[in-house]
Design goal:
single chain, alpha/beta, Flavocytochrome C3, Chain A, domain 1, Methane Monooxygenase Hydroxylase, Chain G, domain 1, 4-stranded mixed beta sheet, 18 helices, 35% helix, globular, binds flavin-adenine dinucleotide
Length: 640
């Protein structure tokens, strides 16, 4: 394409437009194409570079390969406990029921998981999961998942070619960022964006759009997330009229690298603890025994001997407290560092060297071995790692119907990390890869069905011109540099909306964010449109901003502590708050200014059958008596 084409908008159309080429987007695309629809998949980064590719530990699915006692009911229970019972129970139920099929199906697409001695898919232990449950490929599971789904896409394209399809029925357009969704009459009708390499605009008409854009981690400085995670899908959905739920719940993974500064935040997989690693403070104390909360006391060992026996005899011993859900471990590390028992660089020690032999460590954790060797000059087979909490995942996201993944906007679906509800207040490790497979498939299926029942929409020149004008606005501004503004926003979030929160600080955060609003509206970009990261960030900033405001507002409103939301001034869970979802929407004034609105919405009540999977004594720790008394008296006999 010559530079002369730069001002010509590229026009495309399809039945199902999938925004995002991570696991959720690719799984949705496969399903929509299998349903006979024409599909376009858009990816902000290079194809194959999505967040999913970074996933290390594995995908949780109750296949029962390593412990035959596992089944969907146990997985459901673990997921609800991990989310502190704020989960959309129907999503958690579908997820637990369908995850095994989604994993087995991946094998039929060509995935090669690690095996047990008797040839089944191997499953590893992870925090909050009662049994070994994570199907994995060493510590590079996401890479295999993406490789497999990409291969499936290529095979579908080859099928189309062999069938003599004149048109390209399954297109992948990478290095292209969507900046607007087009809507009309309460329905989505397409999207607008730019090709990063050239700056040329692209407009795609589609009656069904699946958002699969991942998370918001780049709003924080210390994060395991890559540059793409600027909350684009969350913000696009809000602007289109959809709602976000429970944006206050952000997962700070307990173990990110803390040293050297250039790699601070990069993830240290939970598999290190799943495979025997323990956390120690600067006094050499294995401190997690001091932090087992009341609600988990029955399931976690209170002494090192029992904890260590669990690795070889899980049926007769309780789990090590290093494998508590992530929110608990992150808070414990934070407390140790605050109490002055941290390491030189402000973390704690994660020690696998003294617990497993070097060969086992290198075999089970090859990426971790190389990561520490190359980035920190630390040999994890001989010395402990220094680790600390890092912003990792957002549990909040687009409010969707559990079965169909439909948002409040007709034709707009969402799956994967960008959607909310499934994980409640805290996600268990491994439950994201299975979530994106289960709900990615459902999104593709229901988006295809919606497209079948819809007319092909038309985009007007006026709405395309308006989207182009908005995208070019930073070039006409005389404001600040986008990188400086991103730093400022990250500083506010890290300092005032981080792992431990207080009402006064959240109010301060909202005031400081409000002051940033004007500056972000006036952010400027210079240079040309081809490969211009300053311009790209200038456009991302307004998305990060709106997500940050939704998070701070919800964090201020929820004056209790639950999962990924800890209020120092409101410690402990409140059963009344367990019944509340905080729902954010966007009000738009005539002059185009946006304001986030927050409302309380009741959490749907669990069915008696699902309530019956829990002991009433356990439910009483989370629920009001009226709620848990409607349940029967404990786990059904279906389970062993
Ligand atoms: C280091 C690391 C390790 C992890 N390990 C595990 C694990 O072991 N198990 C587990 O279950 N979870 C793990 N997670 C979490 C999990 O990987 C993610 O939550 C999950 O992969 C998200 O998948 P997704 O399909 O929703 O989105 P992603 O994989 O994040 O993909 C998002 C896609 O959207 C595109 N996109 C974003 N914005 C736009 C836009 N405006 N226009 C066009 N495209 C856009 C991106 O380019 C990308 O293609 C890990 C996360 C990290 C960071």
């Amino acid at each position: 394409m010559s530079d002369n084409d730069i001002n010509e908008v590229e026009h495309l159309a399809c039945d199902v437009l999938v925004i995002g080429a991570g696991g959720a987007g690719l799984r949705a695309a496969v399903e929509a194409r299998l349903a006979g629809k024409s599909v376009i998949v858009i990816s902000k980064s290079l194809f194959g570079k999505a967040h999913t590719v970074m996933a290390e530990g594995g995908a949780a699915a109750a296949m029962g390969n390593v412990n035959a006692n596992d089944n969907w009911q146990v997985h459901f229970r673990d997921t609800m406990r991990g989310g502190k019972f704020l989960n959309n129970y129907r999503m958690a139920e579908l997820h637990a029921q369908e995850a095994p099929d989604r994993i087995w199906e991946l094998e039929t697409y060509g995935a090669l998981f690690d095996r047990t001695a008797d040839g089944k898919i191997s499953q590893r232990n992870f925090g909050g999961h009662e049994y070994p449950r994570l199907a994995h490929v060493g510590d590079r599971t996401g890479l295999e998942l993406i490789r497999t789904l990409q291969q499936k896409l290529v095979s579908l394209q080859q099928d189309d070619e062999a069938a003599g399809e004149a048109e390209d029925k399954l297109q992948v357009i990478d290095e292209t960022t969507i900046t607007e969704l087009f809507t009309g009459g309460g329905a989505v009708k397409g999207a607008f964006g730019y090709r990063r390499g050239t700056g040329r605009f692209i407009a795609i008409a589609a009656p069904a759009v699946v958002l699969a854009t991942g998370g918001i981690g780049r709003s924080f400085k210390v994060t395991s997330n890559s540059w793409e995670y600027t909350g684009d899908g969350h913000a696009l959905a809000l602007r289109a009229g959809a709602k976000l739920i429970n944006m206050e719940f952000i997962q700070f993974h307990p173990t990110g690298m803390v040293w050297p500064p250039s790699v601070r935040g990069i993830l240290v997989t939970e598999s290190v603890r799943g495979d025997g690693g323990v956390l120690k403070n600067s006094e050499g104390r294995r401190f997690m025994f001091d932090y087992i909360p009341e609600v988990f006391k029955a399931q976690y060992a209170d002494n090192p001997e029992e904890a260590d026996r669990w690795y070889t005899d899980p049926d007769r011993n309780r789990r090590p407290p290093e494998l508590l859900p992530r929110d608990e471990v992150a808070r414990a590390i934070n407390s140790e560092v605050k109490a002055g028992r941290g390491t030189e660089h402000g973390g704690v020690y994660l020690d696998i060297a003294s617990r497993r032999d070097p060969e086992t460590i290198r075999k089970k954790l090859p990426s971790m071995y190389h990561q520490f060797k190359e980035l920190a000059d630390v040999d994890i087979t001989a010395e402990p790692m220094e680790v600390g909490p890092t912003c990792h995942y957002i549990m909040g996201g687009i409010e969707v119907d559990a079965d169909t993944t439909a948002s409040a906007v007709t034709g707009l679906f969402a799956a994967g990390e960008v959607s909310g509800g499934m994980h409640g207040s805290n996600r268990l490790g491994g439950n994201s890869l299975s979530d994106l497979l289960v709900f990615g498939k459902r999104a593709g299926e229901y988006a295809a069905a919606h497209a079948s029942a819809s007319e092909s929409p038309k985009l007007t020149e006026a709405e395309i011109a308006a989207a182009a004008e908005e995208a070019l606005r930073p070039f006409g501004n005389d404001g600040e540099n986008p990188f400086a503004l991103q730093n400022a926003m990250q500083a506010v979030n890290g300092r005032l909306v981080g792992i431990i929160r207080r009402a006064g600080e959240l109010e301060e955060a909202l005031t400081e964010l409000a002051m940033l609003k004007e500056r972000i509206a006036n952010v400027s970009a210079s240079g040309g449109r081809a490969y211009n990261p300053g311009w790209h960030l200038a456009l991302d900033l307004r998305n990060m901003y709106v997500c940050s405001v939704a998070t701070a507002m919800a964090a201020l409103e929820r004056d209790e502590s639950r999962g990924g939301h800890t209020r120092e001034d409101a410690p402990g869970m409140d059963p009344q708050w367990r019944k509340v979802n905080l729902v954010a929407s966007l009000d738009r004034a005539a002059d185009g200014t946006e304001a986030v609105r927050l409302e309380r919405q009741p959490v749907p009540a669990m069915t008696p059958e699902l309530l019956g999977l829990f002991e009433q004594t356990e439910l009483s720790k989370y629920m009001t008596p009226e709620e848990y008394r409607s349940s029967t008296t404990g786990p059904s006999s279906e389970e062993s």
